[in-house]
């Protein structure tokens, strides 16, 4: 089996099926059939990475069926992250970063559907420890301060 690797631009997106069509420039400007986009670990959980129109992608085609192939991925953009950092920046400027056992969210709003359990030291703004912080007349932590029950 001979494989062919080609670069092209995303020309159409079907988000519901996770497929795209790709314009193969320099190949008589042919557009592919709908191609699957490969993502990591999608058999064990659901990963969704939406590509953008005109985004450059690399596709692998098989010689027995040249009209069929898969999108392997797109070129990585340069980043200002360190070697140990994993970072995802979204088109609206929001991002998450994981580095040295610390997850940092830089986003406008967090919505949690379900239970939230927090353990360990909880701080805000890097200076207030929510586990021990208290105001006059109010007890800290899980103590009851005499309000409605």
Automatic annotation (TrEMBL):
Superkingdom, taxonomy of origin: Bacteria
Segments of this protein annotated with the region Disordered: 124-149
Ranges in a coiled coil: none
Alphabetized Pfam families for the sequence: Apex
UniProt-listed InterPro entries: GpV-like_apex (IPR044033), Vgr_OB-fold_dom_sf (IPR037026)
Biased composition (Gly residues): 139-149
Protein name in the entry: Phage baseplate assembly protein V
Organism from which the protein derives: Leptotrichia shahii
Lineage per the UniProt record: Bacteria, Fusobacteriati, Fusobacteriota, Fusobacteriia, Fusobacteriales
């Amino acid at each position: 089996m001979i494989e062919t690797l080609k670069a092209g631009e995303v020309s159409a997106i079907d988000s519901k099926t996770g497929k795209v069509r790709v314009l193969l420039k320099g190949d008589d400007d042919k557009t592919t059939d709908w191609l699957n986009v490969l993502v990591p670990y999608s058999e064990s959980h659901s990963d969704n990475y939406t590509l953008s129109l005109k985004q450059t992608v690399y596709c692998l085609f098989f010689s027995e069926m040249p009209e069929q192939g898969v999108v392997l991925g797109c070129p990585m953009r340069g980043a200002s992250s360190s070697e140990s950092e994993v970072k995802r920046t979204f088109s609206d400027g929001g991002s998450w970063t994981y580095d040295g056992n610390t997850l940092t969210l830089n986003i406008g709003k967090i919505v949690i559907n379900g239970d939230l359990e927090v353990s360990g030291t909880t701080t805000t703004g890097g200076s207030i420890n929510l586990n021990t912080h208290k105001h006059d007349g109010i007890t800290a932590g899980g103590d009851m301060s005499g309000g409605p029950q």
